[in-house]
Design brief:
0% helix, Immunoglobulin-like, three-stranded mixed beta sheet, mainly beta
């Protein structure tokens, strides 16, 4: 299980190398799907592990909902499933051209909520709004 927090660069460590069919130079593409809606995001991220044979290390963070840039996932808070695919070349985001799916799991994005000022109407009804950071 991978747990991401808003605004924090998380180093995600996986053991992928031993599951690859091409152990000389494997590349990885990630796909995450939101639970319930099955909205899907496919992205690549550099493996910056110093010893890739023993473990693989990726840096992921959560940003705004405007697009994907350099490991910054633009997702809503909630639960996702992830699949990591082995690829024959870097930067391929077409999962149909994968050598194979090598790992599945759950990704949870926890966002903190802070309340904004509460306004009271004349009939004492309270209106509350929340903002995601």
């Amino acid at each position: 299980m991978i747990i991401l927090e808003a605004g924090i660069n998380e180093v995600v460590v996986q053991q992928l190398y031993t599951m690859c069919s091409n152990q000389v130079d494997p590349y990885f593409t990630w796909e995450i799907k939101r639970k319930g809606t099955f909205d899907s995001i496919v992205f690549t991220q550099e493996d910056h592990s110093p010893i890739a044979y023993y473990f693989n290390s990726f840096t992921l963070s959560v940003g705004t909902m405007s697009g994907l840039t350099a490991g910054v996932l633009n997702i809503y808070p909630g639960e996702y499933t992830y699949t990591i695919y082995e690829m024959s070349a870097p930067y391929i985001t077409n999962t149909a051209s994968a050598v194979g799916a090598i790992q599945n799991g759950i990704l949870i994005y926890n966002a903190t909520f802070s309340s904004i000022p509460t306004y009271t109407a004349s009939n004492d009804d309270v209106i509350r709004t929340y903002r995601t950071y």
